[in-house]
Amino acid sequence: MEPGSSTGAGRDPVGSRRVPANRGPDPVAARAGAVFARHAKALGEHWPEYLIEAGGLGLFMVSAGVFGTLFEFPGSTVYRMIPDPGIRRALMGIAMGGTAIGLVYSRWGMRSGAHFNPATTLTFFRLGKVRAVDAVFYSVAHFMGAVAGVLLVGAVLGESFEAAPVLRVGTLPGAHGAATAFLAEIGISGLLMTMVLNVTNTERLHVYAGLLAGLLVAVFITFEAPISGMSMNPARSFGSLAVAGLWRFLWIYFLAPPIGMLIAAQIYLRRRGREGVRCAKMHHHNDQICIFRCGYAPAPAGVPKEG
Fold first, then answer.
1. How far apart are the C-alpha atoms of 186 and 225, rounded to whole Å?
2. Which of 161, 173, 178, 190 has the fewest CB atoms within 10 Å, i.e. is most exposed?
3. CB–CB of 281/213 below 8 Å?
4. pLDDT tens by residue, 30-75
5. With the C-alpha atoms ordered 78, 81, 82, 83, is the resulting torsion angle positive or negative?
6. Angstrom distance (rounded) from CA 79 to CA 70
7. CA-to-CA distance for 184 and 259, rounded, in angstroms?
8. Per-residue pLDDT averaged across 131-144, rounded?
9. Which of 269, 272, 232 is nearest to 254 (CA)?
10. Helix (H) or strand (E) holding 234
């Protein structure tokens, strides 16, 4: 009988193997397509916030690079005028604390929420206020912004910024070693997130969250920087250390800040529960849109709430 006749149905052209039955769409491909569609939709709708987060951390790194070179490059006039490293650190703290405050209260920061830190975004994802797709794009934006900021400062300032002792304002353990630096980063990151959660979720205090965050940055740079370099931010450290090729201690700044912030979040949850977390913005009450799972106001009638 010829191959392909009615009695050969279900076999391949040589009649030796069974042709697989049609089982419908591949579930793995369907899930991948759904994930891609969800990410594409988020990128199309929330790209301004992603760009703001990249630009904000990039500006923070430019500020850190400029002031770091000004205060620590031996050829700098300011360095020669202020020989005391403690005073120079205090001035650096004021400069970077002021930069953080400016970013939080800028129209950019008020729109995106002023995370500028993947550890912060991860923590608010854990708290249920940031959708997974936004957390992914925010984190990618943070790393891209940090690297871009460091490269920009290097292109302008050159050797004075790139060589020791400035070393692209890289965060490195101090004289007490990596273990102490790791614990210190957990501690300061936890303190920062504890402040953020308690202040942003207290009606009479929430407007001051950016000011207090800047104050903590200034204090930590002044007093804690000799221990760990004062990062609290995996992307900030990656921007400096990866560009410089200093990989050895990067694990500290990838692990410790998220650990510290997540511990702080867990303690907060045990005290006040998920209902005690209103939003993922550092400064919420403004005229900017909110892309988070926001608990401050219900959606208007007939308008579905994002989430």
1. 13
2. 178
3. no
4. 676 766 677 787 778 899 999 999 999 999 999 999 999 999 999 9
5. positive
6. 7
7. 11
8. 97
9. 232
10. helix 234-244
pLDDT tens-digit series, residues 149-169: 999 999 999 999 999 999 999
List, for residues 169-209, the tens digit of each pLDDT value: 999 999 999 999 999 999 999 999 999 999 999 999 999 99
SS (H, E, C) 53-83: HHHHHHHHHHHHHHHHHHHHCCCCHHHHHCC
Burial annotation 274-293 (CB, 10 A radius, 16+ → b, else e):
eeebbbbbbbbeeebebbbb
**Nearest-5° angle of CA 209, CA 214, CA 220?**
125
The continuous run of DSSP H or E covering 41 comes out as: helix 27-72
Place of tokens 């191959």: 3
Show me where the domains of the chain are located: 44-276
CA distance 225 to 157: 23
Q: Which residues neighbour 65 within 8 Å (Cβ) at sequence distance 6 or greater?
A: 149, 150, 153, 154, 157, 161, 168, 169
- The CATH architecture that domain 44-276 belongs to is Up-down Bundle (1.20)
Q: What is the reported pTM? A: 0.85
